[in-house]
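Thanks for the sequence, V.! I ran FAD dependent oxidoreductase right away. Repeating your input here for the record:
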Amino acid sequence: MDMKECYDLVVAGGGLTGVAAAVAAKRHGVQDVLLVERYGFLGGMATAGLVNPFMTYFKAKKPYTEENQLIFGIFQEILDELDKLGGLKNKAVFDAEVMKLVLNRMIQRAGVEVLLHTFIEGVNKSGESSIESIRVANKSGVYNIEGRVFIDCTGDADVAYMAGVPCNKGRDEDGFAQPMTMCFRVANVDRYKMPSNNEINRLYKEAVAGGEIHNPREDVLFFDTMQPDVIHFNTTRIVMKDATDAKQLTQAEMEVREQCWEMFYFLKRYVPGFENSYFQVSAPQIGVRESRRIVGRYVLNEDDVLSGRKFDDSICYFAYNIDIHNPSGTGTVLKSLNEGDYYGIPYRCLLPLNVDNLLVAGRPISSTHEAHSSLRVMPACTAMGQAAGTAAAMAIKAGTQPSQIDVRALREQLMADGAIRW
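Predicted structure:
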């Protein structure tokens, strides 16, 4: 392979978080940046998980106007590029295929080196507190890739976990994480004949009571797509499975496809407008809401979120609900911030306790189960990725560790880059 033996920065995971991290670092002068992704395309949950639309990236319960927008920077660039290519609607619904193209172009313009179809299967450390290299497996074999700084954007904290970073999973009482969900789409739907949400859910509950539905979710959740006759469903629910356990993840994938088709047959049989519909597509992989969460230098908690706490080292701001899908069955807990409020995500949450040259960005940052349920969604994760890439660049330039950079200078740079505004 025509690859370098050592990179200044290695970013693990090519979802929106990893793309933002790699692009930000490259823009800030890091010469050798490698982005490693297990699939043959970028985008993570936005493409491999078919997760759609973007959850709100605006202040709590406010109109969706720029004045109330919280996430900008590289996330805004992605929105703008999607829109130019006809792949964005209402600032939230997007085309997953257009997303793949947008991300490809973004990393190529930035000059980021990318390695697709590559699975990270090990970490080699230098001493107790530094990663020397990651061990990858792909068509070229199994080999090591060295780096000066690493950013874990895998979603499951894979690199952090393999490096010995302490991690938590799920809720405190039993360790169960939020359920996994497979998104799927139904096409050729006559929207004009579709009943109200309340009526669809009444029919659904009748089917559950009659034993025709085995999905533990309490209601039917669906969204618009870019196509008027296609409905997006985010309504399956696999509970009490660990997304970081290969056997349980396999079981989840097998079970959830049965749920997808069971749901489709219910729609076709009972819900007006679906008589002539067909099952268009299911996601390449099950969607994972929650798995590992690192223990970092600060653990963001529920009170921080709901009280709208801002920190001196906030690297982005967010206001999505506490949104906890029952890890063991039926029901969803929703708690909102006060009208117009928002909270900060501290830089310290991206810094693991015991590995100096590692940053973690995206949903596995240091937080409680409750706080995680708010910050886990794609806009916030993209913002965290940009902050992590910017911080890594500052550390590499200064010849220091990410924990030793001037956080005020990091915030000033993020403001200069248009990523945050306060």
